[in-house]
Write a structure and sequence with these properties.
The complex is a heterodimer of chains A (262) and B (440).
Chain A lengths: L4 E3 L4 E6 L4 E6 L10 E4 L11 E4 L4 E5 L5 E5 L10 E3 L8 E8 L2 E7 L10 E6 L10 E3 L9 E7 L4 E6 L23 E6 L10 E3 L9 E7 L4 E6 L4 E6 L16
Antiparallel strand pairs in A: 1-2, 2-3, 3-4, 5-6, 6-7, 7-8, 9-10, 10-11, 11-12, 13-14, 14-15, 15-16, 17-18, 18-19
Chain B lengths: L4 E4 L15 E2 L2 E2 L9 H11 L24 E3 L5 E4 L8 E4 L4 E6 L4 E6 L14 E4 L8 E7 L4 E6 L5 E6 L10 E4 L4 E7 L4 E6 L4 E6 L10 E4 L8 E7 L4 E6 L2 E2 L28 E2 L3 E6 L10 E4 L8 E7 L4 E6 L4 E6 L10 E4 L8 E7 L4 E6 L4 E6 L10 E4 L17 E3 L4 E5 L1
Antiparallel strand pairs in B: 1-33, 2-3, 6-7, 7-8, 8-9, 10-11, 11-12, 12-13, 14-15, 15-16, 16-17, 18-19, 19-22, 20-21, 22-23, 24-25, 25-26, 26-27, 28-29, 29-30, 30-31, 32-33
Classes of the chains: A mainly beta (262), B mainly beta (440).
Amino acid sequence: MHGIVYDPIHDEIVVPVALGGAILTLPGDAAGDAPPKRILQGPKTGIVQPDTVFVDLEHDELIVESGDDAVLVFPRTAEGDVPPSRRIGGPNSGVSNIYGLATGNNCIVVANRVDGPARASDDAILVFDRLGNGDPKPRTKIAGPHTGIIKIRQVFVDEERGLIFATIKNNFEAYNVNDARPSPWDPNKTGFIGVWGIDDNGDVPPRGVIKGPATGLVWPAGVAINPKHHEVYAIDSVSNALFMFKMPEFFVKLPTVSAGGR
Amino acid sequence: MKGRLAFAGAGVLLLSMIGRPGETTNEGTICPLPAGPGFEARLHALELENGCLEMDQDAAPDSWPPGWDKATIAGGDVAPIRVVSDPYPTLHSVVVDAERNLVFMSDPNRHALWSYDRLAASKAKEMVEPRTGIRGPATGMMFIAAVTIDRERQEIYSVDNDIGDRMMVFPYDGNGNIKPKRVLEVPHQSWGLSISQERDEVAVSVESPREIVVYRRGAEGHDQPLRTIRGPNTGIGDPHGVFLDGQNNEIVVANHGNQGGRAAPPGDAPGRQRGVRPTEPRPVQGGRFDEPSLTVYKADAHGDVAPIRTIQGSRTGLNWPMAIDVDRTRNEIAVANNGDSSIRIFRRTDSGNVAPVRIIKGPRTGIVGPMGVAYDLKNEELWVANYGDHTALVFPIAATGNVAPKRILRNAPAGSPTVGFGNPGAVAYDSKRDEILVPN
């Protein structure tokens, strides 16, 4: 599983099961071989191989990556084989390999990957209006060399401060047998946590980062925040480690930046 | 439930990848850089020795993206206040060469292959030093899964699972940060490996496309498989363990039962490689959770063929069947049944909803989340690699029930927690319980 979300209002955990084409909702205290409360699965759902999922608590909706280059929106309690309420996908949307989803400020935030050879990519944070349906253009797109976004993964929205937290692997996966040096071991190209404003647009640097050798981050793949304790959590898929950072500066208004297109 | 959650409670499993647990404060346990002779310090030294932490002199120095130097950016190169990580190897698969008294195990936690003397064992709570360890950037190993050996050519095989898409072959005596003898491009999400000397072939199980691909032994580079078993009639669903039986001319496959939302392409054309989009996507059929199973095919089967035998159903007790091994003298199949921490032994020729002939399970066995299982027919022993504990266990070959192992091989001091992270891809914060949730 490459996604997870905790719903504090209904005390539920929601996970995608990529290999079973399903979304499972479990009790918040689930442990061991606990059965799910709900299973969303079947041909009508359009869910093929979901990698990530999010729950929009404000609007009681479940946001699902289809595994098929689309964002699917269901009622939060949808179960069985039911069609989505809305779908975002198509050439105008630019939605491709989705590795992260989040909602906030009446938006759906998509961590979008467009893989190219080696380090080439058009990875982006795409922000859509919450009620977008069909093949809409994103409201904003954060992408380009000034962003540092290469191989984006999980995203999270801090709605109170209007910030998007994103995990960036900043690396390429060595799928070619001729690659001399697999990237996970390359200390010259380690990943980072980047923080952008939810209204940021274009090729703009982040407002905040956790990046560098002291962080221990190699391939950060997931991010979560604990505003009460001013902590940022990052899971790393190469070092198989969970890193916890105290970042009080991220929980006040972050600076604007002058470089790039903001 | 098919999904599995690893709940890592902050403040409970606090081990440092970069140092030993140190001073406990209100913020948790602070992890200093290694300074003592502990295992973590030795691991750090090993990382350095293997070149994993060295800067690549030939690579361009890491520079922050353009414009960052002129921007006002909060944060920076900040050390974590706490780290949850497992400094010890996590055992995945195991294989034995009884003639040479060697045991090999794969370790997806530290991206390594370890070898031990066959009779190496912990007398009490101490860990056993491995004989060799292959790891480091030159190896090409990423999130590795199975390990197997070619006893004839004295070669070790391992395969990258969700990152890497390679099968790597090393010499028996390989040690340290070495390049593989051969590398073969394999489909994304390869998991199981089995070599048949009789057939001069290697079989690989592949999770997401639900297929078994068979290569000639010695294949390398971009060599294509000789044949593929794949399609709706095969009954293959999220395959893991595989055994290519050249004596009985069969292939045995352990299936978790997960069926993805798109129909598997029938036939034996080479599977899609990562990053290459299919020109005609397969129809959406909807995901499905089938019951776990063991399916058996003729060794030369290819394409969308039905199994010649299937072991499946409530009496089997199969639950996340991982690695398998076949004892062809006793006609038995051993299954590492991860879901209920047991080893289940089935008659090789059984079919249908059958109970295992023996089950090794219970607190005395020490079996915790087994991923690997291997027969040592010469010494009449059965090896179990525990993913949920830092141990490999050795049982008499006919062991049954809640029995203690003959020997325990620890790769960490007894009682060391196993974090269990394996290529984790997301994290969530449970604000009600003040817990951090990590899916594997």
